[in-house]
Amino acid sequence: MTEPNKQLSQTNASTHLDALIVGAGFAGLYMLHKLREQGLTARIYEAGSGPGGTWFWNRYPGARVDIESMQYSYQFSEELQQEWEWSERYAPQAELLDYINHVVERFDLARDIQFNTRIDSALFDEANNLWQVSASNGDKLSAKYCIMATGCLSAANKPDIPGLSSFTGPVYHTGEWPHEAVDFTGKRVGIIGTGSSAIQAIPIIAEQADHLTVFQRTPNFSVPAHNKALDPNYITDIKQNYTALRDRGKQGFTAFDTQSNEKAATEMTAEEIKAELNKRWQMGGLNFYGGFADFMVNQETNDMIADFVREKIAQKVSNPETAKLLSPKTVFACKRLCADTGYFETYNRDNVTLVDISKAGISTITPEGLKVGDDAYTFNCLVFATGFDAMTGSLNKIDIRGIDGKTLKDKWAAGPRTYLGLCSAGFPNLFTISGPGSPSVFTNMITSIEQHVEYISDIITYLDEHKLSTINATEEAEDAWVNHVNEVADGTLLNSCSSWYLGANIPGKERVFMPYIGGFPPYVEKCEEVAERGYEGFTLA
Ligand code: N01
């Protein structure tokens, strides 16, 4: 057993808050606004020099959202959603950051955000029912509630490849892109990875660079985004009836409106299936998820969609060998589906080379490039598009200790354990917004974030009204929820490949399906039932 938090007695908590929030992305910002509205004292600590979370850090060329902008935005304020104008179907990163800065200004949030500061530790002080928190700038705080708004994809995965420090050119990671523009004109560039970030960045880097070499371990399914400028009449139409669109979104499995065809492929004729596939391809983007209700659970349906996309890849890529290498062999959408603009066509360019590293692997990075087996490749700039230590990575960077001094990291060593993705037993008054065990990354993140923020806010109101000091998930409720999350994932085809959903992209990370894949509406229903029963599954003290 771990020692209780003895060091607490030495902590000189200089500031007391009702709530300490970690992270100034979409989740942290709305949480701050909500708690302030409730009359609580709250403050955000944020490692970056500005707000935005994902959209602050991921500034790589081509970065843009893959859920339509009219839906990928806050809905808590009617005035906000009426006044903001999106310019493109899928907003680029810079516009998303403008939107976030507008929200910060509009709701006067900056005065309660401490930028450039990490939270190093959060220790639960059992005697006083308070979280004692230390920040990298030396701040010591005590807070009744500690709210982790640290994001699902925020801890960059930087593979430890031998020789990396010997590389003489600049090295970039898509998830930690520099703030100043990076110009690849006249450069030879190497990029490792072919996930969503790479699929967006590759077409643009290829246009700038003298030569681009792509090192691919696993090909990914991608569908055309069909991004375009938004027609002002379309925006007006939506704004006149925004609530209806938002309601359709919340009724959808993914918490956004995919104009879902409610039918399974097994209920459709061959002609209907063909027409649906072509329709989805024309619609573009993640609307593809709405094509067939059974694509995640029925192997035949999934194979049929996968074959359709593979045929499209073969049509787009002129070299049959390259097309074959770019064709995923996994279950369709087993790894997160990508939405692209000219990704596959980029491989028809003379200045782009695709290198298969699935068999030999990168053996070493050299001063002027890297080696795959014995084959050497040279370039001046290296881009890691190698993703993230998803869902748990950022939390594990903080020394979080609950009852009896037990660390969250130790508790989650065999995979994250939460009740509803919101709380972990033994860590009273600690909340994770869109934490593992919640629908989070399978949904429109902003809608899921709003649901969590409002739920946490309701819990806090309930505790105050009932003069209670703590809420703590019970072990039983947590075990039952974790089992349910696993059972639902086991009933799908999605745990059949080495995705980040399973933590399989991080060497040594336990393979556990982390997000809840039962769908947004059933999840919300479960949360509401729990609340109606006086927060069943929690101990309130
Ligand atoms: O990261 P990824 P990402 N050696 O993990 C490869 C969201 N997102 O940043 O598949 C060699 O998907 C790895 O290979 P493999 C979205 O949810 C959204 O692209 O593990 N290669 C893979 O090809 C997305 O899913 C948007 O075999 C290595 C790539 O690097 C999530 O973020 C845009 C390696 C990593 O792909 C993550 O996307 C961008 C190694 N050691 C991201 N380690 C939009 O909204 C990893 N790889 C559009």
Attribute tags:
single chain, FAD/NAD(P)-binding domain, alpha/beta, 5-stranded parallel beta sheet, disordered N terminus, 20 strands
Task: Tell me briefly what this model is.
The protein has two domains: 15-51 and 109-155 and 390-534, FAD/NAD(P)-binding domain (3-Layer(bba) Sandwich), CATH 3.50.50.60; 222-384, no CATH class.
Summarize the helices and strands and which ones pair or pack.
Blueprint: E1 15-22, H1 26-37, E2 42-45, H2 54-57, H3 78-83, H4 93-106, E3 113-114, E4 119-125, E5 130-135, E6 140-148, E7 171-173, E8 188-192, H5 196-208, E9 211-216, E10 222-224, H6 232-240, H7 242-251, H8 270-283, H9 299-316, H10 320-326, E11 338-340, E12 352-356, E13 362-366, E14 369-372, E15 375-378, E16 381-384, H11 393-396, E17 399-401, H12 408-411, E18 430-432, H13 445-465, E19 471-473, H14 475-490, H15 520-532, E20 538-540
Parallel strand pairs: 1-2, 1-6, 2-3, 4-17, 6-18, 7-16, 8-9, 8-16, 9-12, 10-11
Antiparallel strand pairs: 4-5, 5-6, 13-14, 14-15, 19-20
Helix pairs in contact: 1-13, 9-10, 13-15
Could you please describe the fold and organization of this structure?
There is one protein chain. The chain has 15 helices and 20 strands. With 541 residues, it is of the alpha/beta class. The chain folds into two domains: 15-51 and 109-155 and 390-534, 3-Layer(bba) Sandwich (FAD/NAD(P)-binding domain); 222-384, no CATH class. Strands 1, 2, 3, 4, 5, 6, 17 and 18 form an eight-stranded mixed beta sheet that branches. Helix 1 runs parallel beside helix 13 (445-465). It is globular, with a radius of gyration of 23 Å. Residues 1-13 have low confidence and may be disordered. 3-acetylpyridine adenine dinucleotide binds at residues 65-66, 153, 159, 174, 192-198, 200, 217-218, 336, 357, 362, 385-388, 441, 500, 505.
